[in-house]
Design a protein that fits this description.
about 290 residues; mainly beta; nine-stranded mixed β-sheet; 1 helix; about 0% helix; elongated
Length: about 290
């Protein structure tokens, strides 16, 4: 079937595909296809397997991933994908909107994660990245709102614009040493984020990088505010400088989150409830006193 532009393709809008009354769950790429448009089956929720005919000169399948032979780029994946250890990059939008994908391991061979690669993967809860990754591009994990854990290994240089925007379940992030740039809105609207640690050597933090992270405290290994730092860098979040040797923020408080998720500001032997995570829910009991360390 030849469609006159993407907007005329019903698979752009449909979430299920039936052929002869059979639900399609497997993508089979024939030997003749040399230009696969991932948006032709965008948002298709039942896909669980990807295969390619052996005679195809451009693509192959491995681990339920569609891979470009010449470059090693992962072009497209599904909820059952396991990324092979030789893949060089995760292509733009390759998993975007993938339902049922709950965990991902990014092998050490991967140098970058492309634009919007995992954007909107609402079932994704756990991402493990092996050392070797250099770049996380714009929107890579945007609106993965159930993502609870991701490690960022040493070697990452740039975290792109809105890379983690709207990851509402993340509570803590450690930016690795060697990182140079955190782009605009990279962690904006991470409403559960309470702790983010920055190493020495960061050269640039884009505006609104931590916007709408009302319960966040930023811990910086730099001994004092670097030249590039402006108020737009922390978006009114308290900052602790020289955090390896100090725990008092520049506003004079120590920030502490207890086992119930309640956030306190401690100063002069007194504890005061302060701005709370927007994801805080359920009944909470405020104790008469708290023990810190």
């Amino acid at each position: 079937i030849k469609f006159q532009g993407d907007c005329s393709n019903p698979l752009q809008y449909a979430h299920k595909l039936y052929v002869n009354n059979q639900l399609v769950t497997q993508l089979n790429i024939s030997k003749d296809i040399t230009n696969f448009n991932i948006f032709s089956i965008y948002n298709y929720v039942d896909l669980n397997a990807i295969t390619v005919e052996a005679e195809n000169t451009k693509y192959k399948s491995d681990g339920n991933c569609l891979i470009e032979k010449e470059t090693g780029r992962l072009v497209f994946g599904c909820k059952n994908s396991i990324i092979p250890s030789y893949v060089t990059s995760i292509g733009s939008a390759s998993f975007e909107g993938c339902q049922g994908l709950t965990s991902v391991v990014i092998p050490s061979s991967v140098e970058h994660i492309g634009f919007d690669a995992f954007r909107g993967c609402k079932d994704l809860t756990n991402v493990r990245i092996e050392a070797g990754l250099n770049y996380i591009y714009d929107g890579a994990f945007q609106n993965c709102n159930n993502l609870k854990y991701i490690n960022l290994p040493i070697g990452i240089k740039t975290i792109g614009m809105k890379a983690f925007y709207g990851c509402e379940s993340l509570t803590e992030i450690q930016i690795p040493s060697g990182a140079q740039k955190i782009d605009q809105g990279a962690f904006a609207s991470c409403i559960s984020l309470t702790k983010l640690t920055l190493p020495t050597g960061i050269e640039e933090i884009g505006s609104l990088a931590f916007a709408n992270c009302r319960a966040l405290t930023i811990y910086c290994e730099e001994e004092s505010k670097p030249n590039y730092w402006t108020e737009a860098c922390n978006n009114s979040c308290p900052v602790v400088w020289d955090c390896k040797n100090n725990e008092i923020a520049q506003d004079g408080n120590i920030y502490f989150v207890d086992e119930n998720g309640l956030r306190y500001a401690l100063a002069d032997g007194k504890a005061a409830l302060t701005l709370q995570s927007q994801s805080l829910s359920g009944n909470k009991t405020i104790p008469a006193s708290i023990v810190y360390k």
